[in-house]
Amino acid sequence: MTEASDQPDLELLSVTKRFKGFTAVDEVSLKVRRGEFVAIMGPSGCGKTTLLRILAGLETMTTGQLRIRGRDVSDVPVNLRSTRLVWQNYALFPHLDVFENIAFGLTLKPHDKAVVSGRVKAMADLVGMRDFLDRRIGQLSGGQKQRVALARALVTEPEILLLDEPLSALDAHLRLRMQGELRRIQQALGVTFIYVTHNQIEAFSMADRVVVMNAGRIEQVDTPERIYTFPKTHFVARFVGANNLFEGRVSAVDERHTAVACGHGTVTVTNRGATPAVGETVTVVVQADRMRRAAAGGPGENTVPVTLKGREFAGSQNIYLFDGLDGTEIKLVAQESMGSAAVMAVNASMTVHFSPEDASIIGYAGPAAAPAADAPAQAPAAVSAPPVQAPPPVQAPTPEPAGAAP
């Protein structure tokens, strides 16, 4: 991995993209440290793919500035940028074999054949495709095609690799395997990865930091753990994980806890930094897997009266769906098999509980209770990998096959 630097590898300054009738990207600012794996996720239409196309040079921004390693590349054309894009549909050349596909970007500038061959084989080793270099693209599985597309993008030694939902076409089992492969390759090479996805599992399992977007804006930037545990906005709380949201008004605040009067009763939340004022309307957020079903709560736990509406089996988990006294939908995720789950009748009344430590508060005027990691996180430590002998960095582009849709 390249040595960490104070200078961001990538910096977006108030980037905006307007199309006729709507704004796709709205005043987005972001810094990415060299060697970081950053995932951008959000619902369809949130602007994440448009933002990726701006980074690649395939879309021009309306206003703002884009810098790569301190250099303003806002107006630099795609073929002169030090970025490469891995397409969602791979965009491989079907008339070329694996070797020729990987080597394509290197052949656009004069290179010694031995150098090209050595670099292609080294990259094929890294992605596990050395034994398939003479295969045609039509003879490969989906996972193998993804590896070839990745190798073709990386062989030209880009400073930043952009990935547009590259695993979406794979089945669930292969997707899990490729997540590990992508993370291993990224750590071995130390290249900055910007990864666009709508899949939370992909983002959380691979990324150093996650950017959550909605309606063209960034809602939150933080580590996966903090976004999951401490969502900063109502959108993030609803979009990420399976959170329970209790609306209420602050009734009391002391040194350790904040009390919130909700529709089902008063709950207490452990303070983290700044606290809301008494009388403010707030939302208490509790993860579904932090709720506990029991006849009685433990010391200091919050108790919520509920009515069971249904249960969903999810392998090692059961997902219970309840209604609160005020009609609030409440979810509880229990780590149990269907066989070990207690038999409960639909419409049965019971209580669920959660600890003040497992709750957070959003939606008030003061600073967030859990400050976000707005500055880039320390670049992760490199994972050892076989040395790859390569000539000076190649700036040639990697054109896509004719007619390939981004």
Write the layout of secondary structure elements.
Elements: E1 10-19, E2 22-32, E3 37-41, H1 48-56, E4 63-68, E5 71-72, E6 83-86, H2 98-103, H3 113-127, H4 142-154, E7 160-164, H5 172-189, E8 192-197, H6 200-206, E9 209-214, E10 217-222, H7 224-229, H8 234-239, E11 243-253, E12 257-262, E13 265-270, E14 281-287, E15 292-293, E16 302-314, E17 317-324, E18 329-335, E19 349-354, E20 359-362
Parallel strand pairs: 3-8, 3-9, 6-7, 7-8
Antiparallel strand pairs: 1-2, 1-4, 4-5, 9-10, 11-12, 11-14, 12-13, 14-20, 15-19, 16-17, 16-19, 17-18
- Indicate how many domains the architecture comprises: 2
What is the makeup of the main sheet?
6 strands, mixed
Lateral strand order in the biggest sheet = 6-7-8-3-9-10
Second rung of CATH, namely the architecture of the largest domain: 3-Layer(aba) Sandwich
User: Which structural class matches the secondary elements?
Assistant: alpha+beta
Note the run of SSEs as H and E.
EEEHEEEHHHEHEHEEHHEEEEEEEEEE
Q: What is the class of the largest domain in the CATH system?
A: Alpha Beta
The CATH topology of the largest domain turns out to be Rossmann fold
Q: How much is the average pLDDT?
A: 86
The fraction of residues in strands falls at 25-35%
Distance between the termini: 29 Å
What's the CATH H-level homologous superfamily of the largest domain?
Answer: P-loop containing nucleotide triphosphate hydrolases
Low-confidence stretches: 367-406
Oligomer: single chain
Overall 3D form: elongated
Count up the helices: 8
Number of strands: 20
Q: How large, in whole angstroms, is the Cα Rg?
A: 25 Å
- Helix proportion range: 10-25%
